[in-house]
Every structure is written in structure tokens, then in C-alpha cells.
Amino acid sequence: MRTRMKVDNYTVASIAYELKDNRTGQMIEMINPDQPQEFLFGAGLLIDGFENNLKGLESNSDFSFVIEASEAYGERDENALIEIPKDTFEVDGKIDDSVIEIGNQIPMRDNYGNKHLGIVVDHRGEQILMDFNHPLAGRELKFSGKILSVREATQQEIEGSSGCACGGSCGCGDHDHKHEHTWDETENCQVCGNPPEMQGQGIGDCKCS
């Protein structure tokens, strides 16, 4: 009898799951079986708790587990709340108020070229207060779902996973929030391909934000 492949380094698993806040029960993300998500394991693209709990499972395996913030997106850091000069968002001498609306996620770049995704949380005169914590920072996460299939990763997938060009919360780049920030209007994550407004949502194929 042929042994079914198990989730391991440099395998790709097709997965359907629900992601909830374990404390509040809030639904954060749902991936249905008819449109599963593929994940590359062992390439440093996934949060530790998710990857570690799924390794060793094979196709048709159900799973349910809870992970602490330390194994997900870390605890909230109050130093990641930063005031940005309002004129940073000027384009041709004008500021589009819809861009700096409270709650908006805005891609930014620091003076070292590292990318970060910030959320507008307050207007303070000529300063905009932005939160550069990952949207899921500080939250205890509950995953439940099913491994639909497991296969070996292709060489192209493995090579494409090396080197990260996404935002500051993906594990690459510099996390010194004292750096000066500029508005980055165009950048998609080069690992998972998500546009700025979708980066950092759930777990995706990448820990970008």
C-alpha cells in the first residue's frame, strides 16, 4: 500500500479552514473546501504555530488547535504607534482625505527601504497617528479545518520562496519604528502577490503586512 505524503518541509498542502479569535469567537478568515488555499511549508512564509501544528498530517486529516500570540503575530507593541506628518500623504500638493480616513491600511516605506503596513487610528492636527502592529497582533488564534491534499513543492515554488520583499511583519526587514516613513502607493507583496489592502489579512501564503 502506498504511503500518503505528509505535511513536511518543502511540501505544498491544500487546506480549508476557519480562523477565529479564540477569546471572542470572532470569525477572522474562512477558506472553503471548494476554494482551498495552498501553503508551502518549510520556507519561512507561515506563522510558527500554524506550520508546527500541521506538520506530520496527511491528506483528509482534520485539525483543530489554538496558538498563542507569541507563535502567531506577537504581542502588541505600543512603540509601533507612530505619528506621521500629514504632508507625507501629499500628491501634487494635495492630500486625498479618503486615503487618511481612520481605519484605512496604508503601505509605507521607511528610510531604509523596508516596507510596513500601517492603520490610521487618529488625526492629531498636522500629524496622523498610525498603528504598525500586525492586525492580529496580541490575539490568541483558533484554527480548525482539513488537509485536502499534500504534494511535493516544485523547484520553482521553492526558489520563489527565497528572499522576502514584503512588509515589516513578515520577518524580513528592520523593525526599528523610529525610522522616517514615506507613503508607498504601489507595492504588492512579492512573495504572496497580495496588494497592499490585502496584506496581513489572516495568514495568507506569507506573513506580510
Strand tally is: 12
Would you list the SSEs in sequence order as H and E?
Answer: EEEHEEEEEEEEHE
Give the amount of beta strand, in percent.
25-35%
Number of helices: 2
Largest sheet: 5 strands, antiparallel
Mean pLDDT: 81
Q: What is Rg? A: 19 Å
Shape: elongated
Low-confidence stretches: 163-179
Structural class: mainly beta
Helix percentage range: under 10%
**Spatial separation of the terminal alpha carbons:** 44 Å
Short description:
This protein is mostly beta strands.
Explain the overall architecture.
The chain is mostly beta strands. The chain has helices at residues 48-54, 155-160, and strands spanning 11-21, 27-31, 37-40, 62-67, 81-85, 90-91, 94-95, 105-110, 115-124, 127-131, 141-152, 181-183. A hairpin with a 2-residue loop joins strand 6 (90-91) and strand 7. Mean pLDDT is 81; it is low at 163-179.
What's the arrangement of secondary structure elements?
Layout: E1 11-21, E2 27-31, E3 37-40, H1 48-54, E4 62-67, E5 81-85, E6 90-91, E7 94-95, E8 105-110, E9 115-124, E10 127-131, E11 141-152, H2 155-160, E12 181-183
Antiparallel strand pairs: 1-2, 1-3, 1-11, 4-11, 5-10, 6-7, 8-9, 8-12, 9-10
Annotation keywords:
single chain; 209 residues; 5-stranded antiparallel β-sheet; 2 helices; 12 strands; elongated
